[in-house]
Inverse folding.
């Protein structure tokens, strides 16, 4: 058994690596820039403005802090045409444009040269001002408009890769330069850029795209996520540091710690209640197969099963937490707004929270009744048909002894399988119920993370869920062996 | 650089549920009364709504002096410098003090930690303040100039994790304590600028001896922090201070969330509530000044996101106040007799508005040159059924906007008229502009640059808001009647923001938030914000508008500034870069067991610490109105 457990735990490692990698692939390819998002709108809107030097410095700082200035993974299967430093360009659209140009022309040196000239061209336009004499010669509106147009076209060129788009923009700039002599100083640099672009086309080596290359990055985002950066900004996953939340800038582990308690509580409570209710129903229904009890319980349980949780939750609230109907329970939260009485112990806290817990607990649990009791029933029916049960009855044992001592234990396997799902359900929580009842759990945190592109949190949830699923199945496997001596893992 | 500092309008692309409704704007109109359609908000004579105290304290009302305030979200954090959420600022209004703050009643700035608003030098760059001498921190230490300097230095330090705040401090050159007069200090700014005082409303004063025990920041100057070549990360002592200062405990641990405000941050039950407790020996004790009173013993901010549950909580009186209910929820509650007996509720105006932006300068390749002609942009406004949207989706509660300036502001240009929904006029204008249906497919077209271009484009809006989808759908249907095809394109917030700043869109729907302070139009309307990935998404602007914007931001004379702002509004109106939709409304609710009720147009809409429990005994506090 020990050998089996060790083997299973060892299998966890590659599985978890694959899970985390999947998370990374999703986050890297997700739209939007997390740093832009952090600076723009942390939670409920924020400031947006021009790209100031200070802001760019701040973005640089946060990229470094979050490890976004690093390549994604240890290895990159690329082509001979691609440089190993493309990841350093942080503007996603510019990076994509360069990537597409490489895919088409395959000559990075020329492309890089073109890009650098373009960048310099843009910066020189930003720094450019007309002297007063020149301004007098032209219409003010025309000057403003022309300068804006040339800046915009140049800026847009940096993120353009389609040939017709690039050429259209070149033509536009050419026209501007032709019609507005005050832009004369830009003519030569522009000619150079055009020349550089022609050079890219002339010296294209698209065949290089077909020769694979393997690039190794010692420092990368994934490594940093796993092992940290020496404790400067991150300690790494293996030390329990999931990184920093893009929204609250808190350590992810702190966020999870603050939210997992109630999710865990409701998950465990609902499973416990589901087992307490469903097992006797399932066993009784199996023992009295076809009886009125069997049929009635099936109908009721399936009716419950078909009710959506948000509907039942609202119905319960509107009925039992409504001063206009019955006001037995509070409408939201897991404890009074003023908190627990001072120096309250565990039991007093539970007693205080009890009215808050009952309605959510019902909603968490009811849908499991049908599934679990049917599982128990089917399993029991199969077991009570076995020869050894007939033998037990022939020996003169009471029906109670036959069912609970001999049949039930051997019907436990499907129940154990269901038990394995509790663990991942804990972290997943229930978004709808948490929102309706204002329960501070992981479900709402997960949906909030998804809505806000808070990828470190999403990956953390994914990883923990994966780990708990694996753990759940391991425990199930061990329990199989415990309840059924025929199962051995030697 | 300072362009950014000048920015006033705040992007609220994500959660701004622009509940495009309104009711009372300080007048006597009953809250439930539906507005006349096609009416824009008039500049208000009244600057806030004052509600009379309840004549009777009903037996069913709680006598506990605890105010439970409903919220629908939590602050990102409560760090004195490193946070960005509106709720954080609201809470800090009670737990911290600022140099200056908002006078909600008069919609001006008011001195808080200083004796008066500053005297300004002739060049408009030096602002001299004198600190009050009665303000003390919790340990009894008196507030000093040292704390003010530390506060702004800590915010300015490159290692402080407050990227969102940095641009607002770019204009500061130095803060100098007066050597001769104690408590007097001068803030020296780089440029003359309309927000050189109001920017201070965002920075709570921190106690230097608490946040910088070793006085590390005193070794560094503003000049160093202004120098982009200054290598802050190579200064070990500064790094150590910043690591400590940025640590999570100053963001969430109540022991470290200290300030000189009348309330102490007592408890944060994540996902449930935040509790503020009144300081019993606060320096302001006994003060009768409105902003220094602290009547409730506790203010509890209670989270509840579910509309049904919110209704039940108000019905059972477990919540005392809210400014976060949805329009639908409040309208539902207002139908309940008991609710109206127990609560005062109003829809109050705000400075926020929703809009549809059109790309005036598309590249002509990826995005067609449809909105380059202002006639076409006007057509889009004529084809937008705003009154119908208002009626169908918002029960007619919304108030329409005509431009970027809130009608609540004196500089609002009331000469501009609302653009009506008029399909026939739109068709005529389209014909004049050369857009005709030449191939009989009911979509107009035109030859542009030698190519036939169809009048078909994408209308982007955020996926997360159902309201946006409904609005987009209604607009698209009407446009089609005039031969214009708007394809609905729901996108994620991140994508919407990306395409907006890179001008990679045809048309997009979003919202802006603003406030009472003098507005700098650079961020949204200056051409420099178009070329530098700023918030001028549309490409609006010319030399005249740029010159006006540049002048407005450094004109401190309100009258002169008003004339310029009105002219800018007229230009924007004429150019029609946006279809201005609705001004959003705040949904204010306060329990009648509290007196001193006032509802404000400025955020957060109410001043909780000034709400006074009307009875400690449960007996009638005033002769009944009926007796």
């Amino acid at each position: 058994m020990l050998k089996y457990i060790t083997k299973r735990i060892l299998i966890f490692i590659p599985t978890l690596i694959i899970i985390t990698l999947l998370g990374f692939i999703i986050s890297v390819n997700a739209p939007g820039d997390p740093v832009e998002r952090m600076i723009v709108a942390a939670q409920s809107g924020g400031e947006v403005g021009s790209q100031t030097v200070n802001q760019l410095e701040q973005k640089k700082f946060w990229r470094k802090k979050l490890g976004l200035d690093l390549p994604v993974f240890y290895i990159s299967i690329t082509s001979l045409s691609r440089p190993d430093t493309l990841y350093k360009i942080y503007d996603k659209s510019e990076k994509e444009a360069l990537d597409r140009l490489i895919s088409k022309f395959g000559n990075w040196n020329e492309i890089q040269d073109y890009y650098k000239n373009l960048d310099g061209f843009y910066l020189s336009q930003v720094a450019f001002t007309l002297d007063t004499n020149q301004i007098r010669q032209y219409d003010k509106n025309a000057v403003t408009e022309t300068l804006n147009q040339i800046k915009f076209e140049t800026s847009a060129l940096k993120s353009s890769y389609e040939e017709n788009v690039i050429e259209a923009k070149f033509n536009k700039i050419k026209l501007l330069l032709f019609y507005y002599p005050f832009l004369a100083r830009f003519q030569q640099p522009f000619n150079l850029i055009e020349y550089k672009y022609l050079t890219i086309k002339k010296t294209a080596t698209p065949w290089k795209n077909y020769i694979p290359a393997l690039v190794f990055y010692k420092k990368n985002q994934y490594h940093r996520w796993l092992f940290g950066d020496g404790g400067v900004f991150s300690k790494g996953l293996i030390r329990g540091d999931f990184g920093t939340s893009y929204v609250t800038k808190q350590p992810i582990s702190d966020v999870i710690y603050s939210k997992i308690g109630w999710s865990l509580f409701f998950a465990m409570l609902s499973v416990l209640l589901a087992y307490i209710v469903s097992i006797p129903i399932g066993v009784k229904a199996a023992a009295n197969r076809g009886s009125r009890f069997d049929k009635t319980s099936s109908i009721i349980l399936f009716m419950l099963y078909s009710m959506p949780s948000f509907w039942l939750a609202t119905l319960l609230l509107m009925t039992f937490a409504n001063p206009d109907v019955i006001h037995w329970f509070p409408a939201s939260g897991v404890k009074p707004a003023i908190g627990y009485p001072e120096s309250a112990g565990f039991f007093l806290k539970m007693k205080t929270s009890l009215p808050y817990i009952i309605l959510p607990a019902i909603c968490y649990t009811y849908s499991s009744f049908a599934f679990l009791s049917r599982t128990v029933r089917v399993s029991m029916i199969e077991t009570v048909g076995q020869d050894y049960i007939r033998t037990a009855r022939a020996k003169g044992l009471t029906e109670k002894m036959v069912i609970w001592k001999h049949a039930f234990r051997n019907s436990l396997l499907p129940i154990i399988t269901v038990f394995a799902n509790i663990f991942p359900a804990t972290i997943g929580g229930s978004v709808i119920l948490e929102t309706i009842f204002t329960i501070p759990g992981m479900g709402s945190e997960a949906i909030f993370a998804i809505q806000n592109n808070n990828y470190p949190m999403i990956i953390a949830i994914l990883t923990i869920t994966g780990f708990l699923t694996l753990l759940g199945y391991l425990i199930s496997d061990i329990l199989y062996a415990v309840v059924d001596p025929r199962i051995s893992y030697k | 650089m300072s362009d950014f500092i000048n920015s006033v309008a705040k992007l609220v692309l994500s959660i701004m549920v622009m509940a495009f409704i309104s009711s009372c704007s300080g007048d006597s109109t009953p809250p439930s009364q539906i507005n006349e359609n096609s009416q824009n908000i008039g500049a208000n004579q009244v600057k806030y709504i004052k509600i009379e105290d309840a004549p009777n304290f009903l037996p069913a009302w709680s006598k506990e002096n605890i105010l439970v305030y409903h919220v629908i979200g939590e602050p990102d954090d409560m760090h004195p410098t490193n946070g960005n959420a509106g709720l954080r600022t609201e809470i800090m209004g009670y737990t911290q003090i600022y140099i200056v703050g908002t006078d909600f009643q008069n919609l001006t700035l008011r001195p808080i930690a200083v004796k008066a608003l500053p005297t300004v030098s002739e060049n408009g760059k030096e602002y001299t303040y004198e600190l009050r001498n009665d303000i003390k921190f919790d340990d009894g230490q008196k507030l000093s100039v040292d704390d003010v300097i530390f506060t702004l230095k800590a915010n300015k330090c490159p290692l402080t994790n407050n990227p969102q705040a940095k641009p607002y401090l770019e204009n500061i050159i130095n803060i100098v304590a007066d050597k001769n007069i104690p408590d007097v200090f001068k803030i020296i700014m780089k440029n003359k600028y309309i927000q050189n005082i109001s920017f201070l409303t965002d920075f709570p004063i921190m106690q230097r001896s608490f946040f910088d025990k070793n006085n590390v920041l005193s070794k560094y100057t503003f000049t160093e922090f202004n120098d982009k070549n200054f290598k802050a990360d190579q200064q070990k002592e500064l790094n150590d201070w910043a690591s400590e200062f940025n640590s999570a405990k100053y963001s969430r641990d109540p022991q470290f969330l200290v300030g000189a405000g009348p309330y102490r941050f007592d408890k944060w039950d994540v996902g449930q509530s935040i509790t503020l407790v009144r300081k019993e020996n606060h320096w302001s004790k006994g003060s009768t000044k409105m902003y220094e009173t602290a009547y409730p013993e506790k203010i509890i901010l209670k989270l509840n996101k579910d509309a049904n549950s919110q209704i039940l909580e108000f019905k059972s009186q477990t919540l005392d106040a809210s400014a976060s209910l949805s329009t639908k929820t409040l309208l539902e509650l207002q139908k309940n007799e008991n609710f109206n007996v127990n609560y005062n509720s109003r829809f109050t105006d705000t400075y926020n508005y929703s809009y549809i932006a059109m790309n005036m300068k598309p590249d002509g390749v990826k995005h067609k040159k449809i909105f380059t002609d202002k006639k076409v942009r006007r057509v889009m406004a004529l084809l937008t059924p705003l009154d119908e949207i208002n009626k169908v989706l918002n029960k007619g509660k919304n108030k329409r906007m005509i431009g970027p300036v809130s009608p609540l502001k004196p500089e609002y240009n009331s000469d501009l008229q609302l653009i009506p929904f008029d399909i026939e006029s739109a068709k005529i204008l389209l014909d004049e502009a050369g857009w005709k249906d030449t191939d009989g497919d009911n979509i107009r077209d035109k030859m542009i640059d030698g190519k036939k271009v169809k009048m078909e484009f994408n209308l982007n809006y955020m996926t997360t808001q159902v309201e946006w989808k409904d609005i987009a759908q209604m607009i698209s249907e009407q446009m089609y009647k005039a031969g214009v095809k708007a394809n609905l394109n729901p996108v994620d917030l991140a994508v919407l923001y990306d395409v907006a700043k890179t001008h990679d869109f045809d048309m997009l729907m979003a919202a802006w938030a603003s406030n009472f302070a003098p507005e700098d139009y650079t961020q949204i309307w200056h051409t420099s914000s178009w070329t530098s990935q700023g918030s001028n998404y549309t490409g609006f602007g010319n030399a005249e508008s740029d010159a006006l914007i540049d002048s407005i931001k450094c004109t401190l004379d309100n009258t002169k500034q008003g004339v310029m702002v009105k002219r800018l509004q007229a230009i924007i109106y004429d150019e029609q870069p946006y279809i201005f939709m609705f001004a959003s409304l705040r949904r204010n609710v306060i329990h009648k067991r509290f007196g001193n009720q006032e509802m404000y147009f400025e955020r957060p809409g109410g001043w909780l610490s000034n709400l006074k429990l009307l009875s400690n005994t449960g007996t009638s506090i005033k002769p009944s109105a009926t007796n």
Notes: Chain B touches chain A through 92 residues (CB under 8 Å). The first helix of chain B runs from residue 2 to 5.
